[in-house]
Amino acid sequence: MQSLTCLVKKEEDQYASLCVELDIASCGSTKKESVQGLKNAIETYLEYMVSEGREDEIYRPVPMNELKDFLFPTHSIYEQPLKAIPLEFGMVHSCLKSCG
Predict the structure, then answer these.
(1) pTM for the whole structure
(2) 33-68 pLDDT, tens digit each
(3) Of 1, 15, 57, 91, which is the most buried if we count CB atoms within 10 A?
(4) Which CATH architecture group holds 2-99?
């Protein structure tokens, strides 16, 4: 099982989520919707990269300046609580094994 870091924060009337290891983001009206959108985007990305034979390019961390902006936005007048949660993917390992 592969674990990825998902950051979730509230931005005005929606939630934003970001996968730190893959530089993939999503948003939604609720935390659950935002995380599910992120999980779907990650699965689609992983399936695509494996199908293209680009497993060695899968990991692409969020650039530090973008991570800083996500964590500490300068435009926000309110302090928002930030939550980091692990997302686990069993298919990553099995996809990489079958393609290798």
Answers:
(1) 0.74
(2) 999 999 999 999 999 999 999 999 999 999 998 998
(3) 15
(4) 2-Layer Sandwich (3.30)
